[in-house]
Design a protein that fits this description.
The complex is a heterodimer of chains A (103) and B (157).
Chain A (H helix, E strand, L loop, with lengths): L1 E4 L2 E4 L14 H10 L6 H17 L5 H7 L4 H7 L4 H9 L9
Antiparallel strand pairs in A: 1-2
Helix pairs in contact in A: 1-5, 2-5
Chain B lengths: L8 E6 L4 H16 L3 E6 L29 H4 L4 H15 L5 H10 L3 E5 H6 L13 E3 L1 H8 L3 E4 L1
Parallel strand pairs in B: 1-2, 1-5, 2-3, 3-4
The chains are: A mainly alpha (103), B alpha/beta (157).
């Protein structure tokens, strides 16, 4: 299915994750975050930038542990920045797939 | 698919002190927080080893009386078997980005889950608040636990 994000028709899955990570832009991130009730700060961007870089390098969305070990944002802060499901919400905003795996 | 879990609550009881007895509860607890659920972890009996400063780093796989290991009991009792099995399992878990038990419990605490020790067991084993890692939220009775868990799911492991 498609949806309009930042004035563009973007393909998303039924949970609202971008189907093509290349479609992502900062404007789209701001808009998805707004839908999730989040206003993006520098700390959010630190996480988003790391997630995109890591996804490009590994082809996988990073786990929370990988994010907290490498981005400079710790577990407590992750849960504050992205309340109600940090890994999923951050992945959605960063335009990378929903993380798979149980940790 | 898009079920809102943020109104849900789960309280997990961890009662065993082996590696395979502790991890499932931790994984379930961490996963529940990742979905936005409210989570309490209640450690009782040998499960307390997971939050005891002295034992937390030395949790081992049970190689005796554990049919899931698929090794004969007489092999399981050989010196070093439990250590070897634990080493192999820890290595595999590190590859899968699963934290060690001490790191995992602290991480779960940092997600905002409550970490509690069982009063009855603490009394029975002669333990004190100082026996436990600093981030334990309290030593509570069974009654306290049920009050805390009321209205949510309870899982015993």
């Amino acid at each position: 299915m498609t949806t309009t994000l930042a004035n563009k028709e973007i393909e998303v899955n039924e949970e609202g994750f971008l189907v093509n990570s290349e479609d992502w832009s900062k404007e789209i991130a701001v808009e998805i975050a707004k839908q999730e009730g989040i206003e993006l700060s520098d700390r959010h961007w630190l996480v988003i930038d790391f997630m995109r870089k890591d996804f490009q390098e590994t082809g996988k969305s990073p786990t929370i542990r990988r994010i907290t070990k490498n981005s400079g944002v710790d577990t407590k802060e992750m849960y504050k920045l992205f309340p109600g499901g940090p890994a999923k919400k951050a992945a959605k905003i960063a335009g990378v797939p929903k993380p798979v795996g149980c940790i | 698919m898009a079920v809102d879990l943020t109104k849900e609550k789960i309280s997990l009881i961890i009662s065993q002190g082996s590696l395979e007895g502790i991890y499932p509860g931790l994984i379930m607890a961490n996963g529940a927080r990742a979905e936005g659920m409210e989570v309490n972890l209640f450690f009782t009996f040998f499960g307390l080893d997971a939050i005891n400063k002295k034992t937390q780093e030395h949790i081992k796989v049970a190689t005796v009386g554990n049919p899931g290991m698929h090794i004969p009991t007489l092999v399981g009792i050989l010196p070093g078997m439990s250590g070897l099995a634990t080493h192999m399992m820890n290595k595999k878990m590190e590859e899968l980005d699963i934290p060690s038990i001490p790191e995992f419990v602290e991480m779960i605490h940092d997600t905002g889950a409550g970490i509690y020790a069982c009063q009855a067991t603490v009394d029975m084993f002669g333990l004190k608040k100082e026996s436990f890692v600093d981030y334990v939220d309290g030593i509570i009775t069974v009654g306290d636990f049920y009050e805390m868990a009321a209205g949510g799911h309870i899982v015993f492991t």
